[in-house]
Amino acid sequence: MHINGYGQRCGDFPLEKEPGEFRVVVLGDSLTFGPGVSNEETFVLQAEGLLNGGPDEDVADDGFVRLINVAANGYSTIH
Question: Less packed terminus of the chain by CB within 10 Å, N or C?
Fold first, then answer.
């Protein structure tokens, strides 16, 4: 499991957005956090791949979506 420098369960990324980049923050509980699976297996990164056209698609010229997983393991809506 990888936790980035911001304390989030997603890859490292620059603070300033890249040209054509759209960012979506994904809030959630342990199901969103994805305990027991690799980062690539979380539904957040699976959805990011689908939004960007899949692993074989080069969308760098058209823009891309970066999903940022800020879920917390053990949290619920009351938190």
Answer: C
> pTM for the complete prediction?
0.77
Distance of CA 62 to the CA centre of its chain: 19
Instruction: Report CA dihedral (43, 44, 47, 51) to the nearest 10 degrees.
Output: -170
The C-alpha R_g of the chain, in whole angstroms, comes to: 13
Distances (CA, A) of 20 to 66, 72, 77: 11, 28, 32
Average the pLDDT over 31-57 and give the result.
86
Contact between 71 and 26 under an 8 Å Cβ cutoff? The reply is yes
